[in-house]
Amino acid sequence: MNALLYALRDTQRLRTFLFWYWLISPFIFFFYQFAVSRGENVDFREMLNEPAIALAFIVSCMSLMMVGLLRAAETENESTERTFGMFAVAQQLLTGNIPGFLLSYFYTRSLWDAPREPFAPRLRWVILAGMALLGLLSLVTLLAYIKLATG
Q1: Which of 4, 26, 27, 148 is buried deepest, with most CB atoms within 10 A?
Q2: Contact 65, 71 (CB under 8 A)
Q3: SS3 content of the chain, % helix, strand, coil (to 5)
Q4: pLDDT tier, 11 (very low <50, low <70, confident <90, very high otherwise)
């Protein structure tokens, strides 16, 4: 139990888990959808015409973008990582990615006591633009999920 609690405070380990989760989970989804499309003799593009599959595809693509932003924030300072972590918590919650939400939460919590420094001195505009794009896509995805659920 102590090992688990220690792992939840280790920023480097949580960053690695989050990185690999965001990198591997989209490919698992893509492979699964490809296998289903081949098993049912349906073109992959036709499967993307179904709203639920299209939304899951968009969320998978956003996970790949999150990997790039995580790496960009990592090359900056811990304050930038913490800000990105708070964004990741909200984004993962909006898209309904519970494992990503939990990993992002513990990642952000492990960075909470980091020293306050200026936000992303080198890659500021890249990170902010990526976060704005992902935030907009997350809101659109949330609205589409609500529309899909209400009929």
Answers
A1: 26
A2: no
A3: 80, 0, 20
A4: confident
pTM of the model: 0.86
Share of the chain above pLDDT 90, in %: 64
**String of DSSP letters for 47-85:** HTTSHHHHHHHHHHHHHHHHHHHHHHHHHS-HHHHHHHH
Measure the CA–CA gap between 41 and 117, rounded to whole angstroms: 55
Q: Report DSSP state, residue 118.
A: -
Q: Which amino acid is at 49?
A: N
Q: 118 to each of 80, 84, 122, 123, how far by Cα in Å?
A: 8, 13, 10, 12
In tens, the pLDDT along 64-98 reads: 999 999 999 888 888 888 889 999 999 999 999 99
Nearest Cα neighbor of 88 from 141, 45, 131 is 131
Report the SS3 class of residue 139: helix
CA 81 to each of CA 45, 59, 69: distance values in angstroms, whole numbers, following the listed order: 36, 21, 10
